[in-house]
Amino acid sequence: MIYVHVPFCRSFCTYCGFYSETAPDCPASLRRFLSYAGRVRREAALRREEIVRTLDINTLYIGGGTPSVLPPSVLGSIVSALPYGPFEEFTLEVNPEDVVSGGPACLAELRALGVNRVSMGVQSLCDDILRWMNRRHDAARARKAFRMLREAGFDNVSIDLIFGLPQLSDALWEESLSEVTAWRPEHISAYQLSVEAGSALDGSDFVEASDEQCRRQYDLLCARLAAAGYRHYEISNFALPGFEARHNSAYWSRAPYVGLGPGAHSFSGAAGTSPDGVEVRSWNTEEEEYRPEKEILSEEDRRTETLMLGLRTAEGVAASALEGSPEAARLLSEGALRREKGRIRIPEDHFFVCDDIIRQVL
Ligand code: SF4
Questions:
Q1: pLDDT tens-digit profile of 217-254?
Q2: Least packed by Cβ within 10 Å: which of 17, 173, 197, 226?
Q3: Whose CA is nearest to atom 5 of ligand 1?
């Protein structure tokens, strides 16, 4: 299970706090892309054994940043340096603008590389909101990009949306959900806007939407997507049957993975697949030549991670993980947790307050 981080975007979105560099469409950017790809290739070669140990889950996820700013030939040079392929699930994050400007030839090249799942950042179907977000596309481009993905033969497409903005009315949100579900993407991820450290909103006079508005829009999301046949399998993720993201689901069950590229994280796996049998989380620095930093997880860290990741999913955690917890017993009696078939989970009508529930059982 491999993650590759692409640290480039054409411009910065207002709400984004991710590590990324601006890369305008020019020859200088192409030189930076090639140098970046060279470093990822070298890292993949150095970490070959580690990568092979994670390939029981045969997935590749190229995320960012905006991976679709890289020409397919540069992406191809990275993919060919990885010690395995074709991948059962190979996800590429794209922006609508790049899909449209790249055109059918670019999409055909991506398919030829083995990309079989595309995650597209649509975020909104309201042009005013897209402008406020400083996105490069408008709603018409997002529609066109989705059509082009289908015409190119992509049959596993995920759409990202954002709700909980003060200027997003419930009516507008409902309209967007009706339209997106009519497209029938196989997967939808929807995130509540939050003010991330380092984003343009951080420290500005932006006033967040009220909790009530966010709650109403989350409830609308759950209801509309359920009615359209999507399964709510993680707090922010919905899929048509059989289209749950294998890669992301494996993160939540604490499977081992290797992250390549600046700032990318890696995990040795819950079973301790690292040679010395301990659980290690590591991350690349964001410098020119990445220096990995690492942390060995304590018993307490492992428990915290298991609960924090597992309770955000519809499957929840093994009941044994909460054995003897008086807080869990109370939450079960209050209906904020539910026990079924040896597992404990947060019922969907409590997903919105999951952070609070998880805090109580940690
Ligand atoms: S949201 Fe995505 S496209 Fe926008 S700045 Fe962040 S990483 Fe780049």
A1: 999 999 999 999 999 999 999 999 999 999 999 999 99
A2: 197
A3: 12
